[in-house]
Amino acid sequence: MDVKVHPRVATLAPLRELIDGDITARELTTHEGELAVIGSATTSDREHAVAIVGANPALVIDATGAPGETLARVTALVDELGTGLGLSRRRWFRYVPPIGWYGVRRHGVTVWLAPEHPRVPGVLHVFDARPFLGGDAETFEQCLSLAMPPGFTATDDGTVAQLRSPHGLEGPLRTVPGTREGHAVTRLATMLGDGRYCYCAHFEGAATLVDTVTATLDSFQPLPVAAAKVAELSL
Amino acid sequence: MRAVDVTSWRRDSQPDGSIVLTARPVHPGFAHEQHAQLRIRRGLPIVRLADDVERFVTQSGEYGALHVERGADNQVRITGSVIGDGEMMTVEGLAESPNMVALVKDLLVQCVWLGASERIRMVPYRPPAGWFGARRDLATVWLPPDAPRDPASLVVGDAVPRGPAERTHALVWPLDPPADTERVGLDGTVIPGTVATWSNDGRVYATAELVSAQWCIRIGLRAGTEQQLVVLRDLARSIEVPPVPANPAPASTELHRWM
Questions:
Q1: Smallest Cβ distance to A136: which of B110, B168, B245?
Q2: Residues of A in contact with B214 (CB under 8 A)
Q3: Range in A51-65, A132-146, A188-202, A209-223 the model is least confident about
């Protein structure tokens, strides 16, 4: 059996690009509380199994060997090994992106562009989950990361509602109507929490896209809790 | 000068991904006629620190460095960086006011957050004089001045938080000595250390381990000499423990008015 462990993979590729053939894959949570996926493909004399633990960077385990043994070995290694990335960092989390929108990755955020943007404006920023920092660090982080582009003129103060997602995240959702370059747009901003992490997002675009965006926010899933005795997450 | 002062500054995203904050006129600390600007860059750590920099530790437990250039008429340019492992942040401040020095340092020390302080991370130490260092995943490999004629290498592992990550580091960097190799105490280290030494084919091998309740740091000498064993011991004694972050704020999801 040939096993390769890559502790820090920065540029992720989908499983289908890492394994040839018909892939069987499953998602899981490691003992460290990291999201992981393990996939394998088997031929008559060979099994190729790949595990991706965490994201950006990820721990990748790539093994080739006899059928029936390789996947078991990779699964065992996922249980044994730790990424050493620390839980109190920016982390990708599970959610359902808006269908048909185009996603672009930036530092700490994924930017989703509506299908007909800019003709029908719609830009959704979904920020990586992170611990709430508090104090000046939180203010500075929000100034750098969460500030929305200038050029928006609010037509009124908007509303703040309490959002409770089906997956247990809670937080305020601010909605503000306004204009940009004379065109009517709506701004949404939310900061959901689960007591450990903040899940932030903001949107500016056509009012007709608000329901789509709200559905995406409802799909946010909290990050899993570590099962093993690792250092407690400090918030 | 607190970080909240810059949140009211004009914010512009640049094509290179940096963020430029420009002080609005009549801003506290910066008079109307004194233009003040901050450029903030985030990216991978590629900086090589000059000797004439001020080094510091931030409240979030990261290492940083600061360099100030002063010109005529109170002009000042200050460049500071907070250096993590997977990323860093650089703040460059320009102003016709000495207040910019305090502002940039204030931001770096109190406000910059890069991520988890409990990660596998690099730590400062005194590198062996004349050796060439190459950065690898989770460790730095040092080669002697006569490499490759001299086959020796010194592997300085990153500080690994105790727990499952130790297994990963040991798999990527198998520095364990042969079974039954005696370990002796290593004096003069910041955290308790031991060293195991053995020979193979006339070359010296050694693994030093510095272990505390929170961290494990391993250093391995491969295919070395007795003199290079001294280099390993000196390096181990110069290793610093990762800094501890200041007490974090309690959890909250208060939405700030950042829209």
A1: B110
A2: 231
A3: A132-146
| pLDDT per residue as tens digits for the range A35-81 | 999 999 998 889 999 999 988 789 999 999 998 899 999 999 998 89
Report the amino acid identity of residue B35.
Answer: H
Which residue bears the tokens 């989390």? A93
Burial zone of B16 (CB within 10 Å; 0-12 exposed, 13-18 middle, 19+ buried): exposed
B61 touches B241 (CB < 8 A):
no
pTM score: 0.88
ipTM: 0.84
Q: The tokens 């364990």 sit on which residue?
A: B176
% of chain A residues with pLDDT over 70 = 97
For B:191-250, CB contacts with A below 8 A are 214, 245, 248-250
Q: Which residues pair with B155 in a beta bridge?
A: B141, B220
- Alpha helices for chain B (secondary structure H): 99-106, 164-172, 226-238
Whether the per-residue pLDDT at A228 is higher than 60: the answer is no
* Cis peptide, bond prior to residue B148, ω within 30 of zero: yes
- Min mean pLDDT across A94-103, B22-31, B113-122, B219-228 is at B22-31
| Cβ contact, residue pair B119, A196, below 8 Å | no
Taking an 8 Å cut-off on Cβ atoms, the answer to whether B255 and A171 are in contact is yes
**Stronger pLDDT, A52 or A134, i.e. the higher one:** A52
Of the candidates B17, B249, B258, the beta carbon closest to that of A135 is on B249
Helix (H, G, I), strand (E, B) or coil at A49: strand
**Residues, chain B:** 259
- Token pair, residue B60, equals 């979030």
Other Cβ atoms less than 10 A from the Cβ of B4: the count is 13
**How many whole angstroms separate alpha carbon B209 and alpha carbon B224?**
18
Can you say how many angstroms the Cα of residue B165 is from the centroid of all Cα atoms in its chain? Answer: 19
Beta strands in chain A (DSSP E): 2-9, 24-29, 35-42, 47-54, 58-65, 102-106, 109-113, 122-127, 152-154, 159-164, 170-180, 183-193, 198-205
C-alpha separations of B169 from A67, B163, B173 in Å: 28, 11, 6
Rounded to whole angstroms, how far apart are CA atoms B82 and B62? 7
- Cβ atoms of B61 and B245 within 8 Å: the answer is yes
Q: How many CB pairs under 8 A join A and B?
A: 165
Q: Would the CB atoms of B111 and A139 count as touching at under 8 Å?
A: yes
Could you tell me if A189 lies within 8 Å of chain B, comparing CB atoms?
yes
Tokens of residue B61, six digits = 């437990």
Q: Please answer whether residues A35 and A92 qualify as being in contact, where contact means their C-beta atoms are separated by less than 8 angstroms.
A: yes
Cis-peptide, bond into residue A118, ω within 30° of zero = yes
The DSSP secondary-structure symbol of B60 reads: T
